[in-house]
Amino acid sequence: MSDDIFALLSVFCPMHVAVGAQGQITHCGASVEKLFAPTRLVGQQFDAAFHLIRPRGSQGLAGLRAAQGGGLQLELRQPRRTRLRGVAVAFGPGVVVNLGFGLSILDAVRDYTLSAADFARTDIAIELLYLVEAKSAAMAASRRLNLRLQGHGWRRKRRPSPTG
Amino acid sequence: MHGLINLAIQNFVTDSYGPQMWQAVAHAARLPDAGIEAMLRYDLTLTEAVLGAACTALNQTPDALLEDLGTYLVSHPNTEVLRRLLRFGGVNFLEFLHSLDELPGRAPLAVEDLGMPQLELVDLGHGEFRLNVRSPIAGFAPVMMGVLRAMADDYGALVLIAPVGRHGDGADIAITLLDSSFAAGRGFALAAGGAGGGG
User: Fold this and answer.
1) Most buried among A35, A46, A55, B127, using CB within 10 Å?
2) DSSP string covering A57-77, please?
3) Which residues contact A19 (CB under 8 A, 6 or more apart)?
4) What is the pTM of this model?
5) How far apart are CA B130 and CA B124, in angstroms?
6) In this structure, is residue B192 part of a structural domain?
7) Is B34 near chain A, with CB under 8 Å?
8) What is the pLDDT of residues B34-51, one digit of tens each?
9) Residue of A106, A115, A160 lying closest to B198 (CB–CB)
10) How far apart, in whole angstroms, are the C-alpha atoms of residue B177 and residue B166?
11) Contact B81 A137 (CB under 8 A)
12) What 3-state DSSP class applies to B53?
C-alpha cells in the first residue's frame, strides 16, 4: 500500500519527503534529492536536513505532525540555505511533507541546474520562469526606447539612419 | 503588424547582409525616417513593402527569405532571448513539437498583441507529424519552417521538414522526426546566463 503511494508521490510530487516514526527520512522525490546531491537524503534525520522556520519553535516529527495542513517555511541545512515552503500530512506513525520553492525558484534553477523534467507535469514553474524572462526582455526593450527618447541611443548600430 | 515582427525583419537583414543592405531595403520600401519602433503597431502594407523590397534586393523568393528569417530568429546570437523562450517548450524536440499548440497562448504572456498564427500539431504516428499554421497572413508558414529547422538543430534532433500546401488561411508543414538525439545540440539552462545543462 505505502509502496503504491510513494510510486504515486514520486510522479505527482517530485519534492515530497516521507518521514518515519523515528524522524528519519524514509523516502523522497527525485527533485528534492537533487538539492542535496551528492549526499543521499534517505536515512538522514529530517531535522538534520531541513530547518523548520515556521511555525516558529516547531521541531522534529512532533512539530511537523502538529502543523498538519498548515503552511511550513523551511530552509535547507546546507551552505546555500535555500528557502522552501511546504505542507505536512500525518501518514501512519510518520508524516509526508510536500515541498516547493516559492520565490526561491529563480535562484534554485541556477544553483541546482534544474530542468523542466525536475518539476511536476502540472507545475506552472516553467511558465513562471518563461514570464520572468519575457518580462526582462520587454523591460530591456522599453529601456532602449527611453534612452533613445532621451537622445542617447541614436547612433546604436542597429538603428537605421533616416531614409530619403 | 506588430513592430517586433517588423523589427525582426530589419535585424535579420542587417545582421545577415549588413546595415547598407538594410538601408537600401528601407529606402526602397519608403520606411518612415524614424525607422521601426519595437513596441508600436504598423500597417500590414508596410511589412509587405519591406519584404518585397528585401526579396528584390537579395534576389530571393518570399518563401526562401521568410524561411531564412525563421532560422535567423532561433540561431543568431542577437536573438538568444527568443531561442530561450522557445526552449522553455520542452526538454527534447518531441516535447517542443507538442508544445507548439500552446505557443499562440504563451506568446501573449510575453507580448500581448503579437498576432501569432494558430498552430495545431497532428501526430500521425511513426515519427510523422503535420503542423497546421493558420493565419490570414500567409508568410507565417515559411517562417515556422525555418524556426522548426533551427530548433531541431538546437535540440540536436534529425528531422525532415517540408511544406505540404496551403488551403484557405492555413498551411500544413510535414515534419518527420528521424532521431530525437542525433547530435549533442546546444546547451540550455532554465536560469538565464547559466551554464548549459538539461532542458
Assistant:
1) A46
2) T--HHHHHHHTTTSEEEEEES
3) A25, A26, A46, A61, A64, A94, A95, A96, A97
4) 0.79
5) 7
6) no
7) yes
8) 778 888 889 999 999 999
9) A115
10) 22
11) yes
12) helix
For the domain that residue B132 is a member of, what is the CATH number?
Answer: 3.90.1520.10
Of A113, A145, A161, nearest to B189 by CB-CB distance is A113
B98 in reach of chain A (CB within 8 A): no
Note whether A134 contacts B33, CB cutoff 8 Å. Answer: no
* Contact between chains at A158 and B10 (C-beta distance less than 8 A): yes
- How far away is chain A from the Cα of B167, in angstroms, using its nearest Cα? 33
CATH architecture of residue range(s) A2-118:
2-Layer Sandwich (3.30)
Smallest Cβ distance to B14: which of A117, A144, A158?
Answer: A158
Q: Which of A116, A134, A142 sits opposite B90 (nearest CB)?
A: A116
Question: For cell 541611443, what's the residue?
Answer: A153
pLDDT digits (tens, 9 = 90+) for B147-161: 999 999 999 999 999
Ordered by start, the domain boundaries in chain A are 2-118, 124-156
Q: How far apart are CA B20 and CA B83, in angstroms?
A: 27
> Do the Cβ atoms of A137 and B109 come closer than 8 Å?
no
- Report the complex ipTM: 0.71
Establish if B166 touches chain A: CB-CB under 8 angstroms: no
B85 and B165 together in one domain: yes
> Do residue B43 and residue B85 come from a single domain?
no
Asked if the C-beta of B38 comes within 8 angstroms of chain A's C-beta atoms, the answer is: yes
Enclosing domain of residue B32: 3-60
